Model the fold of this input.
Amino acid sequence: MAGSQNIGEESDNPVGINVTAMVDVIFCLCLFFMCSFQFKQLEGKIESWLPKDAPGAAASADQNVLEEIRIVMSYDGKSGATVRRVGNTAPVGSDGELMKRVLSLTADYEKLGKKDFPVLLEAARDVAWKDVVHVMDLLKQAKLERIEFAGGAKAAPKSS
Done:
């Protein structure tokens, strides 16, 4: 007679599945994915520090906060040469003048007791690599070891 057997008998399920091992594997996979998950950083997050001694007091404008030395390099199409600036200052002509400005900023850091500060090289896409490497060589000769690259400066707009 068909259908006369009870539910759960061996004839209904000829292959036995070991559920314990499957639960163990799933648990291990869950642990692996939880441990390897990284949260995405919030975009637009601004880190700020407020003075602890006087709440709401603004910092004086004459205090310069030194964090880095930035050398910005762009290509001038009219002259066909690379224009170098230290921070927001006027363009630098010679290697000696460039290093004089960088070393004066280095001296400012040393006066404040800071010994570990980066020198950031920010070069536009159209700047020749030989110019970037030349500036790196000058920095290495001045014993400035922490050289970092910043995102490339935008190319100067082309005038018609």
Notes: Residues 109 and 115 are 7 Å apart (CA to CA). The longest helix spans residues 19-36. The chain has a mean pLDDT of 76. The two ends are 95 Å apart (CA to CA).
